[in-house]
Amino acid sequence: MHRRELIAAVAASTSVAVAGCAGGEDGNYEFDAAPARIPAEEASEAGYEGEEPEPFTLEQEFDVAGVNARVSATTWAAGYENSDNGSALFVASTPDASVGGQSVNPLVRANDAELIRRLLEQVDGQGVGGDGTEIEADDIESRGSETRTILGEEVEVSILETTIDADVEGGDGSSGETEDVPVLLYLATVQHRDDVVVLVGVHPVAVDAGDQLMSLMQQVEH
Fold it and tell me: Tens digit of pLDDT for each residue in 110-128?
């Protein structure tokens, strides 16, 4: 199963106070995170390939103290994949943004399932969503957690399991039938400077890549 099919299936299966702020005039606010990434050497040594972080912007309107505010929050995201075992790691840094004491970044406010869905949608870009049957957040089951040191902080990495509908390619490279694939998800969030850094790892249950993904999470730079 290739990364696009896996990302599309996970995205369909699962339905982040301010600094770095510009503006504020006329109720318009702009926030920009600092990029987070896995160093190329560490990623390569672990068997993962990826590209430099790319920005995407979330825009929303909020009522702040009776005044309509338009907020633009720029998040940076990058994806790393291991073609040998079908695992992938996604890294995002998003402004820990608030206006008038109200959090205005939907990624910061999202629950685990929504956070995973939003992040993977943006990393994969257009075409995410797939034709598989959607699985609600209730179909995501906890499989415990582990504590890892990320960006100098002791962080609890949530381990989740779900089953996704994924297209599996045939031997000739053509699209094969859709099948249910159990996957494990690893989710970690850490507040660092003025941003929230989010890391999402994913691999098929049949593959033993959890320690590898969490070790790679510990290498993140921001």
Answer: 666 666 666 555 555 422 2
The angle subtended at Cα 182 by Cα 143 and Cα 85, nearest 5°, is 100
| Residue 121 near residue 141 (C-beta atoms within 8 A) | no
40: amino acid identity, one letter: A
Q: How far apart are CA 149 and CA 155, in angstroms?
A: 6
Model pTM?
Answer: 0.77
Dihedral over Cα of 73, 188, 37, 13: its sign: negative
Backbone angles phi, psi at 10, to 5 degrees: -65, -40
User: pLDDT digit string (tens) for 95-108?
Assistant: 887 766 666 665 56
Core vs surface per residue 135-149: b (16+ CB within 10 A) or e? beeeebeeeeeeebe
Q: How far is CA 11 from the centre of its chain?
A: 10
Q: Are 186 and 200 in contact (CB under 8 A)?
A: yes
Neighbours of 18 (CB within 10 A): 18
Q: DSSP letter for 53, please.
A: -
Mean pLDDT over the full length of the chain: 75
Go through the domains of the chain in sequence order and give each one's CATH number.
3-16+34-55+76-217 (3.40.1000)
pLDDT at residue 136 tops 60: no
What are the start-end ranges of the H helices in 125-209?
none
